[in-house]
Write a structure and sequence with these properties.
Blueprint lengths: L3 H14 L12 H4 L3 H15 L1 E2 L2 H4 L5 H12 L8 E2 L2
Antiparallel strand pairs: 1-2
Length: 89
């Protein structure tokens, strides 16, 4: 799972949380990274901006870490849409 999308997501996490990128891996959870609910909201805003997407509130509540973020963004970018992420209009 060492692809460009995953690297971008991990870079956004590192930048928003001000933690070293090497401490984040593709399976990291918010709990492992010390991300609380307010940090999580800020992180989701940063991801929406980075990828020019809109993550619905209902789906945002289900995100628990890097794998969930990558999966939701990948669905959007692959054209599957899903409910995890929707293009901004």
């Amino acid at each position: 799972m060492d692809d460009e999308l995953t690297k971008r997501v991990m870079a956004v996490v590192a930048a928003t949380q001000r933690i070293p990128a090497e401490t984040i891996n593709p399976e990291s959870t918010f709990a492992e990274l010390g991300v609380d609910s307010l940090d999580g909201v800020n992180l989701l805003f940063a991801l929406e901006e980075e990828f020019n997407i809109n993550i619905p509130d209902e789906d945002a509540r289900q995100i628990r870490g890097v794998p969930d973020m990558v999966a939701g963004i990948r669905k959007l970018l692959d054209g599957a849409g899903g409910s995890a992420a929707q293009p901004r209009r």
